[in-house]
Amino acid sequence: MNARVTPEGTMEVLSRHEVSLLKDRSKKGLYDLFRQCALAVLNCGNESDDSKSIMEEYKDFDIKLVNQPRGIKLQITNAPSSAFVDGEMIKGIKEHLFSALRDIVHANSVLVKSSEFDLNSSDGVTNFIFHQLRNAQILEAGTQPNIVVCWGGHSISRMEYNFTKKVGHELGLRGLNICTGCGPGAMKGPMKGATIAHSKQRNCNGRYIGISEPGIIAAESPNPIVNELTILPDIEKRLEAFVRIGHGIIIFPGGVGTAEEILYLLGILLHPANQKLPFPVIFAGSKENESYFKMIDRFIGGALGEEAQKRYKIIIDDPVSVAKEIKTGIEEVAQYRRVHRDAYYFNWLLKIDPLFQQPFQPTHENMANLQLHREQPVHILAANLRRAFSGIVAGNVKDDGIRRVEKFGPFEIHGDKTILDPLEGLLESFIHENRMKLPGKVYTPSYRIVN
């Protein structure tokens, strides 16, 4: 499809400098980044989690800025037809498109022009994330804590998907809003359930927040329920955005991406400065998922110890209990922030070690050099394990990671046998249960465990 579209919801005007950057196809420009994110948004509903194949399938896709006296328009060529109805772009997809434009332009503007953000410091990274979220109007002052972050896999069964909808429904009935990674599967299900529940309660202001990043968005295009989309520059800033704006987290079954999120979260909560900080975390699944969570629990206990296991609860086959438990936990969060005068809309008190904030580039050298041994603080071990899973995610679904694995072979992961053996067992179970990629293709591992 070819179309010329006007802004929907945001980003109606651009400076000449911003226009020139978005047209610049060199490494210094923003054209390639915006084209990649725009294609991901327009590809909504098409079932593929291979960003490399998506880019190749739509290699003729193009998007250009058109300056006009009344503002900007986007000239789109050879876009996925699923983004249109009777020749008109779907309104929600148009909103997502201009949200991507807004976030890319703002991130570049802040990073290039501002001297306030030292991205080599922890405070600098957090402040940058705050400004990105504020510019996207994600941060709402004057409201009680009510945002539940839902994590889980994009490649899940229909039974698992239906369970996430039931949990989302119970959350919505209790006036809670949903934030996910914005893609399909366990990211879409809770939003769909909450949408119906909000309608039952005549809640016309339900929030369905989607947080993504350029490397993953092509593999996990924003689902159509998302009404507040924001794109952070990398996976580390995306993960920090989740824990800064969320008031509680529910984790559904998933694969390596979900394991990465779990290790990120537990690594932060295990930091000595966060020991007394209330942060409700629930692992939720149906009866058929009980063995999955027992496996995850064993892995966490073996790798990180009992203290890590104390930071979450496992609730099986009971969506009502999940919703009640997370709401009670959020009430404790609200009380704690009132006492300590912390904002409801952004968790400033949470201490995050710089190792969780600095972008990890999943090259073969970096993956092989990960410090996976026990002679280090447990929250640092969690950070390094998180990076191992992040590299596997890149090799599975991200364009750059897929190309590296195709060229140089699987990533090698080295470390202590006591850590690598349970890690290998967990990864093999993900393969056996088709949790690495969407069904339809034989999965070839992007990694190799080296004892």
Automatic annotation (TrEMBL):
Keywords: Glycosidase, Hydrolase. Its EC number is 3.2.2.4. GO terms for molecular function: AMP nucleosidase activity. Residues 330-450 form the Pyrimidine/purine nucleotide 5'-monophosphate nucleosidase C-terminal domain. SUPFAM superfamilies: MCP/YpsA-like. It is an enzyme of class 3 (hydrolase). The keyword Hydrolase applies. Gene3D superfamilies: 3.40.50.450, MoCo carrier protein-like. One of its GO terms (cellular component) is cytosol. It holds the Pfam family Lysine_decarbox. It catalyses: AMP + H2O = D-ribose 5-phosphate + adenine. InterPro entries: LOG_fam (IPR031100), LOG_family_nucleotidases (IPR052341), PpnN (IPR049788), PpnN-like_sf (IPR037153), PpnN_C (IPR021826), PpnN_N (IPR027820). Residues 4-109 form the Pyrimidine/purine nucleotide 5'-monophosphate nucleosidase N-terminal domain. The keyword Lipoprotein does not apply. This is AMP nucleosidase. It comes from Alkalimarinus sediminis. The gene is ppnN.
